Amino acid sequence: MITTTRRWLRRNRTNFAIGAGVLGAGYLAGQYVLGKISEARQRMSEERIAKENLRRRFEQNQEDCTFTVLAILPTATENILDAIPVEQILDELQKHKAERLSRSVGPSEAASSAPPSVTDDDGKSLTSFQSESYVHASQMAGGEGSSESPTGEGAEGSAERKPKKSKAQLWNEMKISSISRAFTLLYTLSLLTLLTRIQLNLLGRRNYLASVVSLASPPTQQSTISLENHDDDNFEHAYGNDFETNRRYLSFSWWLLHRGCLNLMHKVTIAVREVFGTLNPREEITLEKLSELTLEVRKKVEGATEEERRTCKWLPYLLPSQDEEAYVLQESGMTDSSAAASSSLRRLIDETSDLIDSPSFTHVLTHILDAAFSHLVDTKIAQLSYKIPPTSASTARVQEIVNPADAKAKVANSLAVFCRQAHAIGTGANNEYLTAIESVRDLEAFAAVVYSSNFEFETPEAGSLSRPTTATGLDSAADSLRTSVVGGLESGTASLRQSWAGADSGFESAWGKALAKEDGKAH
């Protein structure tokens, strides 16, 4: 029996060897496949976590941008309201009205009666200015001081130094000042929104990268005593998670709030005077005519052609020149202004300047200015001055009977709305204009590309990601964020690519990649 079994095994040993080899190869192949599947699952899980983390951080960052704009906007508003004191002009017009009344009916009867001869268009226009309380606190104090009737030699000397303006001159001043103030605040709000998006998204990108590096780095031995490391090999400092650098970088918004907005005010005022200068405040104009005049002002400020808009330089209004950076840091409360020369801060400022000078910035600025001016003219002035109801299904029948294009209103009545809306534009709470600006999808797309592009700019020479899968997940997450946000734009990828073409920076390249991917999905 044993001999027979041995002979059988000898005869079939080749078959057994082949079978064992097949089984071994099959086992090894199976283990290899299972390993690859497990690796793929792990990579997909890391990419999904990275995408969710990046998206969550990005959305939180945009909310922070909104709160930041609302917090610092009143500073610029205060400076612009003080620079264009419309309420003081209104006070002078009221004095003219009071003097005319006293001459017509006598001092004893001026307060109790007013004859029909003096209840004219000027009186109605002044009433429209007084229909709502909008006088700024600082200007109210100044107005009260100016409304006191000085007596004696001091009053005569003051009259000699400052000749009294006529009613026509005051109304023309009121016209230019009220319109210029509202337009300047719109430009300031739009530029402040974009500057804040750039600043906080650049810092958000650096903090996100710092967290990724921290997770990817191998754990180190924890000692019982932890000392702060301010050396260059500190990952948090190397990747930009440095509080002092971030604080100094954010303080550069001081320039727009205190200097840039006033420089912009002069440019806007010149444009308003050229366009609205010959318009009579008593004249009746249509809303379409007012929109055309507003567009003419925008053309003079922003540029009349695509090429002029593309080459318009907004950087001097947003950031100081390099030789004035130390002054800005000092004025904004930084104790050590020498930090302006640090490499980390210098890199942030330079990248911000490049973004502001990019065609993308001008494109997005044009879109958000369209939304802001439309809310002012087509919504607020149309409803409050021209009494045009808001467009809705319930008002469609009314608009069939009364054509909004035929509605007319006196320029003086619109000036009153301009004055009141200036305070609404510059308010730090429940700002409808900021809501209208942030509803522009191009703004969110611009922020997404800033947040998810140029990661290599933040990588220190001595540092690197420890795991290849982490780098892959980072790139995939950034690409996903750009594609998901940029791909949802209503204006169309073709026109956007045409408007934003011609730049070789990483920012423009990332935008182009996102658009290309979206086009590929569409086809």
TrEMBL record:
Annotated GO CC locations: peroxisomal membrane
Biased composition (Low complexity): 107-117, 146-157
Record's keyword annotation contains Heme: no
Source species, domain of life: Eukaryota
GO BP term, example: protein import into peroxisome membrane
InterPro entries: Peroxin-3
UniProt region (Disordered), positions on chain: 100-167
Listed transmembrane segments: 16-34
Swiss-Prot/TrEMBL keywords: Coiled coil, Membrane, Transmembrane, Transmembrane helix
Molecular function GO terms recorded: protein-macromolecule adaptor activity
Coiled-coil annotated residue ranges, if any: 37-64
One Pfam family per UniProt: Peroxin-3
Designated name of the protein: Peroxin-3
Source organism of this protein record: Lophiostoma macrostomum CBS 122681
